[in-house]
Amino acid sequence: MEKIIVQKYGGSSVADAERIQRVTKHVIQQKKNGLNPVVVVSAMGDSTDHLIELAKSINPSPSSREMDVLLSTGEQISISLLAMSIEAMGYKAISLTGYQCGIQTDPFFSKAKISDIHPDRILSELDEGKIVIVAGFQGMTENGDITTLGRGGSDTTAVALAVALNATACEIYTDVRGIYTADPRVVKDASQLKDISYDEMLELAKLGAKVMHPRSVELARKNNMKLVVRSSFELEESGTNITEVKQMEKAQVRGVTCDDNIVRLTVPNVPDKPGIAYKLFSMLAAKNIHIDMIIQNLNHDAFNDISFTVPKDELENVNSIIEAFIKEVGASPLLIRKDVAKLSIVGTGITSDANIASGLFGTLYQLGINIEMISTSEIKISCIIDESQSKLAVNEIHSFFELNHVI
Amino acid sequence: MEKIIVQKYGGSSVADAERIQRVTKHVIQQKKNGLNPVVVVSAMGDSTDHLIELAKSINPSPSSREMDVLLSTGEQISISLLAMSIEAMGYKAISLTGYQCGIQTDPFFSKAKISDIHPDRILSELDEGKIVIVAGFQGMTENGDITTLGRGGSDTTAVALAVALNATACEIYTDVRGIYTADPRVVKDASQLKDISYDEMLELAKLGAKVMHPRSVELARKNNMKLVVRSSFELEESGTNITEVKQMEKAQVRGVTCDDNIVRLTVPNVPDKPGIAYKLFSMLAAKNIHIDMIIQNLNHDAFNDISFTVPKDELENVNSIIEAFIKEVGASPLLIRKDVAKLSIVGTGITSDANIASGLFGTLYQLGINIEMISTSEIKISCIIDESQSKLAVNEIHSFFELNHVI
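Output (structure tokens, whole complex):
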């Protein structure tokens, strides 16, 4: 089957009958253009929140298996309505749930990972000229149990299907026009990127640009599947392409992000013995806690201060683990600093261009902003700064790198 | 697996969190009593109506395949909530959709019939000590498509499962206490029956006692599965048993029903030729129209009047067929009488006891009520009378046969 295009519409794009009809027209237009659309949809608007509320009124901590049975109904409702809407316009359509289109997952309810896709049913429906509508966010275990894919689940369904179907592209329709050089709510003259590489997108996604979950971008990169982020409200806009962008000689900053959902932790006076940092971080890793930046300072003879950042919602879990660590090795009490933010610039090759790092640090210096921690990767430079100064910093750095002119 | 009991709870029994918790307690009590409950539930309250409304706002005549995908979510929500509720009380439970518990159907969407049940999954979950919660009203075709079973669907799921699991009984929990000698809204001193035979129940169900759909009663009779109709609001009440009641020597009236959802049709002056009645009724049968009572009177030489009754909602379909028939054979224009009701008495062997028939006709005579048509079967006698007199007649006949004393 040729010219398959996978399109994914989020919950806000199918929130009511009128929006479903708008999606319908767009999908039919693709069909008229000679493409074979496979459409992945999320649950309508905030219907998932209502189901969660209902569940909590019955059981404050419901089992994740039963939550998945419950929540998967949300997408099942959307797919049937979109199929009906397409049929009302005189086109052939068929809705398929996660298991009906062969999406097999591991058995980790509420955060399942796709293990395999058997797209035979989708292909045979496309062969019959139907527009295929697929429930995002869900799959089935080998045992026949319904699973949901957790955060970024519907995007992941779309990318995984695009790969399995050998689609020409995977379009993610959302409530913004594409990927921006900075959060447009923070930086007024942020500009939309026409193209971005998987790696840059991954960094932006991880650093708090919430348009796409890193998980689905990673899957696309691994399989070299072209992603397009577009607006379902402004369908005339062309969006942002996420592809294997050709490497330019000149490194260029592509975006500035700021994540204030972090907390900085410091364990002072840790005895300077081999393996002691390993001990701390393996205790945290055992509880699956994502550690971000780490700095170890030699404080004075035979004692170190170890600082690192974690997401704010992990603080409670982390606290109890560190208490145990401090007790065991005999360090000083934990210091917690919540009012910090992580400011980052992203762009392929930027760490190898000394002018870029010095431009970043110089701008912060001129603003009188203290840099508490620094970390770098091949394509990003991150600084921990005071949260109260983060908006000012993002705007100034955006200007300094002339990101309002980026194409 | 021994001591399996199948219980079915209708939509009003699981309409909100509080009612779900009441059902939970009752189910757990059965488990404590040493039984292995398999619980079939319908969609919550009027949630199905909301889904239908949503569909119609998008497509006035949606395909039945997509309607089934949509409507089956209602039961899926109920089963997960009931399972969570049982888990909240510290018992093990698991919810299973129609296809997960192996309910295979034919491919007639919105009115599918169960073709087979593979209860392996249910049995293995029961073996692990779990209370199994099953979505009523739904199944899956061989092709993997979701179907719904149409009217009486959840009761049918329950009975079919009880048969497949070789359960000790199938309990139908509803919003009335059981089966009554007459509709308690019409006859104030109607009494609840402790036992009733499948045949009597079938007649009552067909004659308009709406507690159970004939379809599920027929399935129970075919497999000799004991049915119990009980109230989910008054759980201390024991309900009505529907079983193969031992035949008594003395015939006894067990119930009086009245169905005013019928219309009487008369085709006057049909030529008296062989095969002409066959022609009319085969034309109607071809359109799957259920004809009830039929009377053919010799009117005058070589011409007959043919009268019969059909459900009121079939009138439109019937009309066009009869017009064609009249045109073809040259009969007089159709006469339609809408203000009639069918009054019936039900009881095994009553037609073989002349006193019962004469008691019925005599009572109607003394009330000055004209009998327009009569039909009998082994266990029922039905009369078509004027609709305006039906309530009076039901009450007087109920008294005449002393049904307020029936046990």
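The mean pLDDT of chain B is 92.
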